[in-house]
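Quick note —
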Amino acid sequence: VQLQASGGGLVQRGGSLRLSCAASGFALLDYAAVGWFRQVPGKEREGISCISSTDNRPEYADSVKGRFTFSRDNAKNMMYLQMNDLKPEDTALYYCVTAFACPTIGGAWANRDLRLWGQGTLVTVSS
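Predicted structure written out below.
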């Protein structure tokens, strides 16, 4: 049972990246919420996006709204985070997660708010 994020890399300001998250050993639909958080080493996590099964509409933190798009493909058991117009402040490790409910968007998601998360994928945005 695991989540594996991939797709990170080095990109210039204004560039784009698409992160993928593969779920294995379980179905994403088993959980009421799926999402992404990011973390800069030494700083708090930031919950940047979440989709709840109750309305299936992504929510976004103000810091990424209008630039990031979160989607899921239940048939493939995958999640995606399309990141456009990247900024140096977007540099972080990005993690995909499952939860029983969406934690506060933009908040510092604690382990108790989440159920599964895997190894992060590093996004570095140069200026």
